[in-house]
Specification:
By secondary structure, this protein is mainly alpha-helical. The chain has helices at 2-24, 29-37, 43-49, 55-67, 89-92, 95-113, and strands at 71-76, 82-87. Helices cover 61% and strands 10% of the residues. Strands 1-2 form a two-stranded antiparallel ribbon.
């Protein structure tokens, strides 16, 4: 009986974590959200703000983020037409997650390298 309760408790945690990872996992999605929150709203601004991110991958990731309600795509009626991307209010609910990941990453880097300023494999 005890093992069964542990299994149920574990599943109650695993299912929403899996749902979260399905939406924000991958190398680029959270970085794109961070870029948008930093004020980058045009495709090229986002692309330039994230080293090694290709146009093809950015287009795919923005589309997935839009489908999941985290990014809003606005087409401006200008000549030529311009497109801007904005984080939705739902994306703003990830702010504490991103801050926690940043803090954990700094602590992990310090744990492994002895200093949070030592960058490995950057750019």
């Amino acid at each position: 009986m005890d093992k069964q309760n542990n299994h149920k408790e574990c599943l109650q945690i695993l299912k929403p974590v899996r749902d979260t990872l399905d939406v924000i996992s991958g190398k680029w999605k959270l970085l794109i959200i961070v870029s948008l929150n930093a004020g980058n709203k045009r495709f090229t601004e986002i692309e330039r703000s994230i080293p090694k991110l290709t146009s093809k991958v950015l287009a795919k990731e923005l589309k997935e983020l839009e489908q999941n309600g985290l990014v809003e795509r606005i087409v401006k009626d200008t000549y030529p037409v311009s497109i801007e991307y904005y984080p939705t209010p739902h994306a703003e609910t990830l702010t504490t997650v991103v801050e926690s990941l940043k803090d954990w990453g700094e602590n992990h880097r310090k744990h492994i390298f002895g200093s949070p300023s030592v960058m490995k494999n950057e750019e």
